[in-house]
Specification:
With about 250 residues, the protein is of the alpha+beta class. It is about 45% helix and about 20% strand. Strands 4, 5, 6, 7, 8, 9 and 10 form a 7-stranded antiparallel β-sheet that branches. Strands 1-3-2 form a 3-stranded antiparallel β-sheet. Strand 4 and strand 5 form a beta hairpin. Helix 5 runs antiparallel to helix 9 and helix 6 crosses helix 8.
């Protein structure tokens, strides 16, 4: 593994659940000799990618890393508009939502809102096949990229079940999964920016769409997602979410 790849792997070790790490923890997480981990961390600190936590032997992401992330977010219409959509939707009713990205086979949650206010995202990362947002993002990948990813799916849920979910997501243009609470469900849409060839997911925890409260919210959700797709230029999502046309008599 090159120094650059190792540094990238170190940055992926940090998460809301692990905002600070020691050299030993990094070595254990990456299965590296402690001397190698120490050398990489020292180089990353000198370059400004991580900082030493005062009064301890721990490290945390540096200001340079955080500033680069903020520049990326501020410079992306896709990111800004996704935040605005999530803000509006989270104010509509008994609903919360997140904006997420795909990193390999994992989904990384960047932002969560509830009742129109930002709240801490769920800690850490999740396997993409265990998460509505992750499945929505996987469904937007080129077909050639999927076999290698599906080969990593564990027996539960299994590659066949994940494949069926992805096929349904492509047909419906969103993923719908049971929620963590009774009469709630997860709804996720992946929006692809054709200029950047990057996708982000908006996932929503909503009242079950089989009941009146969920049915009342669904038109507003679809309208917001169609508007976002049109603004970003995601023609596939816009076409997939187009209202059904009445049949001729």
């Amino acid at each position: 593994m090159s120094m650059l790849n190792t540094a990238a792997a170190v940055l992926r070790c940090f998460s809301p659940a692990h905002p600070e790490l020691t050299t030993s923890e990094v070595a254990d997480l990456l299965h590296l000799p402690k001397s190698n981990a120490s050398r990489v961390l020292r180089a990353m600190r000198e370059a400004g990618f991580i900082d030493a936590v005062p009064g301890s032997r721990r490290y945390r992401p540096g200001l340079l890393h955080l500033e680069l992330g903020q520049v990326l977010r501020n410079g992306s219409i896709q990111w800004r508009e996704a935040q605005a959509v999530l803000l509006r939707l989270s104010r509509l009713g008994r609903m919360s939502g997140e904006v997420s990205l795909l990193d390999g086979t994992e989904v990384v949650r960047l932002l969560r809102m509830k009742d129109g206010l930002p709240v801490p995202p769920a800690p850490g990362r999740a396997a993409a096949w265990d998460d509505a947002a992750g499945l929505a993002l996987l469904a937007r990948l080129p077909g050639a990229a999927l076999p290698a990813l599906l080969a990593q799916v564990p027996p539960e849920p299994g590659a066949e079940a994940v494949t069926r979910t992805l096929e349904a997501a492509r047909r419906e243009s969103f993923v719908r999964l049971p929620g963590p609470e009774e009469r709630m469900e997860s709804l996720a849409f992946a929006v692809l920016d054709p200029a950047r060839e990057e996708a982000i997911a908006i996932s929503l925890l909503v009242p079950d769409l089989s009941y009146p409260e969920g049915q009342r919210l669904l038109p507003a959700i679809l309208t917001e997602m169609r508007s976002l797709a049109a603004l970003i230029g995601d023609r596939d999502l816009l076409r997939g979410l187009a209202p059904a046309q009445p049949r001729a008599a």
